[in-house]
Specification:
The complex is a heterotrimer. By secondary structure, chain B is mostly helical. Chain B has helices spanning about 1-5, 10-30, 40-50, 50-65, 70-90, 95-120, 125-145, 155-160, 175-195, 195-205, 205-210, 215-245, 255-265, 275-295, 305-350, and strands at about 165-170, 170-175. Chain B has a two-stranded antiparallel sheet. In chain C, a hairpin with a 2-residue loop joins strand 1 and strand 2. In chain C, helix 5 runs parallel beside helix 6 (about 175-190). Chains A and C meet through helix 1, helix 9, helix 10, helix 14 and helix 15 of A and strand 1, strand 4, helix 10, helix 11 and helix 13 of C.
């Protein structure tokens, strides 16, 4: 085996087949979309798609880390909303915009720390904790903004997403790709990434091997909080205004992006290449549906279906494989043992 | 003391504690708000708690098997709308049929959840986050953005909420409250006296053992989701009666309220313990808090969700830390007691022999 | 001789590359305790799973009362009167004892009658002479009590064939005696019992008939009277077994570790010992003596709350495995599957996990080639049989998995290595290799603490033996003074003294 293949050999093999599957789906989606709208396939179009969903795909990166680690952060969209609302609130009160931004990033830090405390240190189930905080942080955002919407941000802020910075790529997209590269490096090539996998794979065994489990989890939740805050700000920049229900309901899509990408909900396996492919698939499917005039709610429903399928299909496939193997083994067993032909015959009559 | 340890589990003490807490809350707010605790207040609470309480019963069944049902809000919204639609166009539908329609639709939606979780082996969080979205999109597509309004509905259903069975003074025992009480009692009995109910506890308590224990665990998980959907359908009927005006946003967030009720009520998210009655108490406490905070004016309505989320977290944390420790103490005490008794018996036997 | 209640005829079962069962035929008679022995991988658990319906045979048939049957799942097995009790009891901790007994019953009526259930449960338990409060929650039960409940459950289902898979692995000697009493009473009620165990003396003390499996084939099946332990071992191993382990004499070096009055509340107390470089200190004792907890305290997983740990002259507080590793202490756990290894990760990833920081380049990236070469080194040094160092360790045999776990800790370059049941559940050949390695480590100047319930092993491998009982230290024996009897007596403590007085 060449020395530079992925250390987690069998996971890589599994990934290869899942990723191949994703590539196939992506091609089908591109074809379908091209039928609906000729000239669909263009770099400009793809860039646009990414820019319009930048906040979701950025959070998908940290979500992937968390799920690989055996946890989940359902409160991320609420942190997005809270951070954006806090920034808008203080900006509206006359604070300098830069300071407001700083405050909202600290919101990300604090919420991440809070989540991480209950999961990593007290030991509560991250699903329940982040579900509770999904409600709570959303509520806090509404405390700040009540029913109002705040806008009138400085121009440079609003242009963050739109204006092209390097070639055709705006700043927000550069941020995404920068984070993506960083994430890939950390996950696949650093000690931290290896420990993340090990903990998700078997938390106790990792602990017994000297891994500082609590520290890793805490860091991951803090990262999730910070990235979510950043994403919230990017969303606010794109929309030009902030409301209490900013990023409401994003968790479905973000989790789908991660799970469809082949990351196991049980932790311990997955790769960011798959997540990237699944992001492409989801963005393009949604775009295709928009072009075909399907409503936003319908699109969300389809995403829900994709989520279910992303877990259901592997289950069904492995069931099928097992059944095939059993049948093959029965045939082989019979073939190899000529002396038992008599037994085989009586067995065949009574056997299913 | 021995008697106490033998007859009661930590979970039951928790329910007692919850009941006491409810009383304390009432006492506290009575002191803060003039004219707080009167017949009208009781009537209002008894009406507003019904939908969440019924959902909490269904959620309890699901929680017991170590699963979650996040789709109930969407089921409520859809069944409320669907039923409203039917009543609008066919006002001659008798009430009993209307209830059955709502329950039937909810059952169907719950069965999809159940199929995917029990037989597709997809984790319930995934399934119900997805069906939450899928059922909501059903509602949007089906309704075509045309809301149901009270004008479209037959009188009997619009007049249902305040309808009462009997009154004690000014305090009314309302029909919909009665429906809720019935549901709570029936399911509490099921969980205590039917093998089906006891096995739900077993499934959550040790899923591996449940697989080989000789009863159809998969089918039972499916049934739990089925029932959760059915109850959500019933809640949808009551939702329609209470609000009359149903838009595509109907029912959003109800699943979180039911989870809050269940968790506060002592049903463990690890499965295997908790009761329907506890879930009801949890729903009652939360509803009480919400209504009281709303009246208190010291805290604006915008604090509601923030507090709700923290409450869930608090309840889970307390359960984890306190109940966990309490269980160990209990178990040790039970063990010591049975060892003592065994020794006593063998001493008696030795003397006799 | 009665007719057999259950027969297996010419059963074959294959998994991927392995022929798990190769033309196995077995007769199980009512009112008889039939022992099934064999090394790991011999096919015992596959056989059980076929009888209980978890697997279906590729070829061959099962017959119950001379009628062919197919068992497709656990419910059908239950209906046929087949029940199994495993090492980990299948108990529902949130239900009470009575419910645990009757939970699988389909025929107790549509409604649960609690009063009747409690009475029926008490009936069954008293018939088995087991004293438990049927109303207490199963959570508080000891392992032995849980097994008793499972047996009660089987009885209540009119079990005809009871399979017991390594039931004594985690029981104390006293509990084993009680269990065997139960089993004998079952036998007298006409139940057929298939008993699988690893401790030969134990197995032979209860069996009426002994069947030996090796590599999926049935080697022999004889009545207990007709068989000797040596014959059984020879059948199991396929060769004559010589004395294969004796620790080579090594020079004792300087004092490495001193433990004074070490204790953890409610777990263990007043533990005092020294470990020198180049020596093996054995920790002997029965199950439940809390030796593992001392190891966990030294490794920082469950730190002690009183006493002192003095490492190379300096007093230390060890609060985490990371700290322990930095101080040169490594601990190889007894639970290989759940705690010792990440099963679905490669050998490379497992071996380098504790020392990952030493494999990072200045940028913080993992040096893959260095990792792989480390893994290859250990593969050769410990003769680990694996298709590739990149393969999941799950696919390796028990013995090889154990070696991977040991490689992990050796790679950490410890000064003190604590081994907890290092040869449990691995076959004879691998066992010898591990012993050789331990001897070698001592020769190189490591200090080794060997925790083991295998008394011959402890006696052969240790320079000195510390005996513990129920969290207390009973004494330290020099190699020359240690005999099986003395150590056992110390391990059993008061109990043994009482016995002598009574006798």
């Amino acid at each position: 085996m060449p020395a530079n293949t992925n250390i987690l050999q069998s996971i890589w093999e599994r990934m290869k087949s899942w990723e191949g599957f994703l590539v196939a789906i992506l091609i089908v989606v591109f074809l379908l979309n091209s039928v609906i709208a000729p000239n669909y396939l263009s770099i400009g179009n793809q860039i646009n798609l990414f820019v319009l969903s930048i906040e979701k795909i950025i959070v998908a990166l940290t979500m992937a880390f968390l799920i690989i680690n055996g946890e989940i952060d359902l409160s991320a969209p609420s942190i997005m909303g809270l951070a954006a609302c806090v920034a808008a609130y203080f900006f509206n009160r006359g604070m300098g915009f830069g300071t407001a931004l700083l405050i909202s990033m600290s919101v990300g830090l604090i919420t991440g720390l809070f989540n991480g405390f209950w999961v990593a240190i007290v030991g509560l189930n991250s699903l329940v904790v982040t579900l509770a905080m999904l409600i709570s942080y959303r509520g806090m955002a509404r405390i700040f903004l009540e029913d109002r919407s705040i806008g009138n941000f400085p121009d440079w802020f609003n242009q963050l997403g739109q204006k092209s910075l390097v070639g055709p790529f705006p700043l927000s997209l550069i941020i995404f790709f920068g984070l993506l590269v960083l994430a890939v490096i950390i996950l696949q090539y650093t000690g931290f990434g290896r420990r993340t996998f090990a903990i998700g794979n078997n938390k106790d065994a990792a602990r017994y091997s000297g891994v500082k489990v609590a520290r890793v989890k805490l860091l991951l939740f803090i990262a999730s909080g910070l990235v979510s805050a950043l994403a919230g700000l990017l969303l606010a920049a794109r929309l030009g205004a902030v409301r209490g229900d900013l990023a409401y309901g994003y968790e479905l899509e973000i989790v789908t992006m991660v799970l469809l990408g082949g990351v196991s909900i049980f932790g311990g396996s997955g790769s960011l290449y798959g997540v990237f492919l699944s992001i492409l698939i989801i963005l393009n499917i949604k775009n295709g549906m928009s072009l075909a005039n399907f409503s936003g709610h319908f699109q969300t429903g389809v995403i829900g279906l994709l989520l279910i399928l992303s877990v259901l299909l592997p289950n069904l496939v492995s069931d099928f494989q097992e059944a095939m193997q059993r049948r093959r083994r029965k045939r082989e067993a019979r073939r190899e043992l000529p002396g038992t032909a008599a037994v085989a015959k009586s067995d065949a009559s009574g056997d299913s | 003391m021995k008697f106490l340890i033998r007859r009661f589990q930590p979970e039951q003490i928790r329910e007692l504690f919850l009941a006491v807490l409810i009383v304390l809350v009432v006492v506290f707010f009575s002191s803060q708000i003039p004219g707080y605790f009167n017949a009208r207040f009781v009537n209002r609470i008894s009406t507003s708690v019904v939908v969440v309480a019924i959902l909490a019963v269904g959620q309890t069944l699901v929680f017991l098997t170590r699963n979650f049902d996040l789709s109930t809000g969407s089921i409520v919204g859809f069944t409320a709308y669907f039923l409203g639609q039917q009543l609008w166009h066919h006002p001659a539908i008798p009430p009993w049929a209307a209830v059955l329609i709502a329950i039937g639709v909810g059952t169907f939606m719950g069965s999809i959840n159940g199929l995917l979780v029990a037989y597709g082996r997809v984790p319930s969080v995934i399934v119900t986050i997805a069906t939450l979205a899928i059922y909501r999109s059903f509602l949007v597509e089906y309704s075509d953005a045309v809301p149901i309004t009270t004008n479209n509905l037959p009188d009997w259903i619009v007049n249902l909420p305040p309808l009462s069975l009997f009154s004690v003074g000014d305090v009314e025992f309302r029909v919909i409250f009665g429906i809720m009480v019935l549901v709570v009692i029936v399911f509490q009995l099921i969980l205590n006296y039917l093998p089906f109910g006891r096995r739900l506890y077993a499934i959550g308590s040790n899923p591996d053992a449940a697989q080989v224990a000789g009863f159809p665990a998969q089918r039972m998980v499916f049934t739990a989701f089925l029932l959760s959907g059915a109850l959500a359908g019933l809640a949808g009927f009551i939702f329609l009666a209470r609000f009359g005006n149903i838009s595509v946003l109907a029912g959003i967030g109800l699943e979180f309220a039911s989870i809050a009720a269940v968790v506060v009520g002592g049903v463990s998210n690890m499965g295997g313990s908790g009761t329907v009655f506890g879930a009801f108490l949890g729903a009652l406490l939360i509803d009480l808090l919400e209504n009281s905070l709303f009246r208190w004016q010291a805290i604006s309505e915008f604090w509601r969700d923030a507090i709700l989320g923290m409450l869930i977290l608090l309840a889970v944390a307390i359960d984890f830390v306190v109940i966990g420790r309490l269980r160990k103490v209990w178990a040790r005490a039970e063990l010591e007691m049975s060892v003592e008794e065994a020794q006593e018996e063998s001493e008696v036997a030795a003397h006799a022999g | 001789m009665a007719e057999p209640v259950l027969e297996m005829r010419h059963v074959f079962k294959r998994f991927d590359m392995t022929q798990a069962l190769d033309d196995v035929s077995l007769d199980i008679y009512p009112g008889e305790i039939h022992a099934l022995v064999g090394e790991n991988g011999a096919g015992k658990s596959t056989l059980i799973k076929i009888i209980t319906g978890i697997y279906r045979p590729d070829l061959g048939e099962l017959r119950l009362d001379d009628q062919p049957v197919t068992v497709n799942n656990s419910q059908e097995a239950q209906a046929l009167g087949i029940a199994a009790i495993y090492q980990e009891p299948m108990i529902f901790p949130d239900l009470n004892v009575a419910e645990n007994i009757f939970i699988s019953h389909q025929d107790r009526g549509p409604v649960v009658r609690w009063g009747k259930m409690y009475r029926d449960a008490e009936d069954i338990l008293s018939k088995l002479d087991v004293h438990l409060d049927v109303r207490m929650s199963a959570r508080g039960l000891t392992l032995a009590a849980q097994q008793a409940v499972e047996i009660a459950k089987a009885i209540s289902l009119n079990v005809r064939v009871l399979i017991m898979d390594e039931p004594t692995a985690s029981l104390s000697a006293h509990e084993v005696t009680q269990l065997f009493q139960l089993v004998r009473s079952l036998r007298s009620q006409g139940v057929a019992i298939l008993f699988i165990g690893h401790r030969l003396e134990e197995v032979l003390s209860i069996a009426d008939r002994v069947t030996v499996l090796r590599d999926g084939k049935k080697i022999s099946s004889r009545l207990r009277e007709e068989v000797t332990p040596e014959q059984v071992i020879r059948d199991m191993v396929g060769r004559d077994v010589e004395d294969f382990f004796w620790k080579a004499d090594t020079e004792r070096g300087e004092l490495l570790l001193s433990v004074r009055d070490l204790g953890r509340q409610n777990v263990f107390h007043d533990i005092n010992f020294d470990v020198y470089r180049g020596e093996v200190l054995g920790f002997a004792g029965l199950i439940g003596s809390r030796r593992t907890d001392v190891g966990l305290a030294l490794f920082g997983i469950e730190p002690a709350d009183s006493g002192e740990i003095i490492l190379e002259g300096t007093r230390r507080r060890i609060h985490s495995p990371g700290e322990a590793l930095r101080l040169g202490i490594a601990y190889a756990t007894e639970d290989r599957r759940q705690l010792g290894l990440n099963m679905t990760m490669s050998m490379v990833a497992n071996v380098t996990l504790p020392t990952l920081t030493s494999y990072l380049n200045p940028l913080g990236l993992i040096r893959r080639r260095a990792e792989i070469s480390t893994a290859e080194e250990f593969r050769e040094r410990l003769s680990i049989r694996t298709p590739s160092v990149q393969a999941d360790v799950e696919r390796l045999s028990g013995g090889n998995q154990q070696k991977v776990m040991l490689s992990k800790w050796l790679n950490a370059g410890p000064k003190l290595l604590i081994l907890d049941e290092p040869t449990r559940g691995i076959d004879v050949g691998a066992k010898a290799e591990v012993h050789e390695m331990i001897s070698d480590l001592a020769a190189r100047g490591l200090g080794v603490i060997l925790i083991s319930s295998d008394l011959p092993e402890v006696l052969a491998m240790s320079d000195r033996i510390l005996v513990m009982r129920e969290g207390r230290q009973m004494g330290i024996f020099e190699h020359t003074d240690a005999t099986e009897e003395r150590v056992m007596t110390a391990a059993m403590g008061q109990y043994a003294a009482e016995q002598e007085v009574g006798a």
